[in-house]
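Course assignment 3, question 2. Fill in each field.
Student: A.L.
Task: Predict the tertiary structure for the chain below.
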Amino acid sequence: MSQLSRITPSEQLLTCQDSQKRNSFTLFLLMELPHEFFNVDPDLWGAQKDYQQSSETVRSMSMVNDHAERGVTFIQELSDIITKDESQLQLLLQTVEQHRHAYSDCKKHTLLKLRPST
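Answer field:
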């Protein structure tokens, strides 16, 4: 019988919660946010000053979940900054796409191969 199959559902839930707590704690450490509230019962976190400070910081952060969202946001910002003309924007996007195909990476040896010899 595997070790995992001997764990009860409530123990699995606790293990999952411990894992989430460790991951959250690591995030707070990396961001250098106050984190002493992790040592207190979660029901009491709302009254903890460090929890309130960390909560405010996290809530004020702008989160982007996936590459498509980032791409859409980038294009919207780019079109607002560079041009309002849709045809000019499409030309710019085609140029960027051609450039990405021509220069598959930005490594020095790749760029040197593409440079005309003098």
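Instructor remarks: The mean pLDDT is 76. Residues 67-114 form one domain.
Grade: pending
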